[in-house]
Design goal:
The structure is a homodimer.
Chain A (H helix, E strand, L loop, with lengths): L14 H23 L2 H8 L3 H8 L2 H20 L6 H14 L1 H13 L8 H21 L8 H17 L1 H8 L6 H14 L9 H8 L1
Helix pairs in contact in A: 1-2, 1-4, 1-6, 3-4, 5-8, 5-10, 7-8
The first copy, chain A, binds a DNA duplex through helix 3.
DNA sequence: GCTCCAAGTAACTTGATGGTTACTTAACCG
DNA sequence: CGGTTAAGTAACCATCAAGTTACTTGGAGC
């Protein structure tokens, strides 16, 4: 066999590993400092590769940024497509996910701040993933788990808001609750709140349903 | 009278006006590009002042950034302390405010991404303002406008989330709803949604419906 | 073994950018 | 009125950072 083991972690030459290292290092750097603040040299240092390789594989800084974002996006999507159940669980699930993957939230934030809102990266795939999520919401509405009176698009937006916000704005979280987002105590409180709060999404007893219907 | 009219807009020398111009220009620039991305020369050009003056008044780029943030914060606080009524109105009010003052939302976002979460700028005053807001929520809970079952801190966090999020993440808003945050149609939809959605905050069951009807 | 190409390295270039120096000019005050 | 100080200007500098040039090396296929 001439081919070296793919999992070899210390082979003299290994394009895949190099690419991977660059992407991992770049994610850290970009998540921490954003596009403008990230230093290409820092990425190279962190990845323990020569800066030239970075240009070799990704063209330029922007190409690397896009590659990082794209990779994160597809990771998340593959991973996100399996969840079901009622809104309470979803809210908790997504809040936990945001806490566990701060880099993701931050990347979205950087994208929001510096990206062109008109043509987001990987728009097509993201739209598809969003559509899948939307269908799940519609199903739940049909099943009566979520009130049919709400526009599913706004339900989705509301859920994202409620789960991502504390991670996206840690300083406000601290200002308001007095605790760090990463404080386990805060997280427990938040989970409890979300569980209770999820009631909004469910069709209410009695009258309210009628009101919703009449609308 | 030796003193020139304070409102004179073209006096040969006018420190106040210069300071003001710098701050205004800097807000725009920082909101658009963040701290790292902002260009001091661009600020100077935009403000139509000599770059040196900027260092004269604010020391360095960071000093300027802090000054901008501080100014915006105090502006908002003065302005935010008058609102009352029920959660539906508050939600709508704050959503509108976010839409109207995107720069503010973006500054908070930049702060979140690059600021030290441990020691936010102007912490003391912000805490005080937050506390005032919290008291309003508690009052409403006492009056039965908001369910007493919720932790007021989390209610506040939830309200902020719901109102700021679409502006903070315009690309997600577009991806999810298909519309720009600034599309009047979106804004109308969102207002309607928030109004309905605010029901969650109100004490549940029987009462709720009545309140809805009475409104 | 030899050749060729991708992987990899080190040192360099070039332009942008935050900050400074050295100077001029207006205004306030005793 | 004169002189001290703050407002204002223009040209400059040092540094930093993205991107390149020019080179070396490993290995797959013949």
């Amino acid at each position: 066999m001439t081919a070296p083991a793919k999992t070899d972690s210390s082979a003299t030459r290994n394009p895949e590993r190099t690419r991977e290292r660059i992407l991992t290092a770049a994610l850290k750097e970009f998540a921490a400092h954003g596009f403008a603040g990230a230093r290409v040299d820092a990425i190279a240092r962190r990845a323990a590769i020569n800066k030239r390789m970075l240009y070799h594989y990704f063209g330029d800084k922007e190409g690397l940024f896009k590659a990082v974002l794209r990779r994160k996006i597809s990771q998340r999507q593959a991973w996100a497509d399996n969840l079901s159940g009622d809104p309470a669980e979803s809210l908790q699930f997504w809040f936990e996910a945001a806490c566990k993957d701060v880099d993701w939230v931050r990347m979205l934030e950087w994208e929001a701040l510096q990206g062109d809102a008109q043509k987001p990266i990987d728009e097509k795939e993201r739209r598809a993933a969003t559509a899948r999520g939307m269908n799940r919401i519609r199903q739940r509405q049909a099943r009566g788990q979520i009130s049919a009176g709400f526009d599913p698009r706004h339900v989705m937006l509301a859920m994202r808001s409620l789960t991502m916000f504390p991670v996206a704005f840690p300083q406000l979280t601290r200002l308001i609750t007095g605790r760090s987002v990463f404080d386990p105590k805060f997280q427990r409180e938040r989970m409890a709140f979300l569980k209770k709060f999820a009631a909004v999404f469910r069709p209410a007893q009695g009258q309210q349903v009628k009101i919703n219907f009449m609308k």
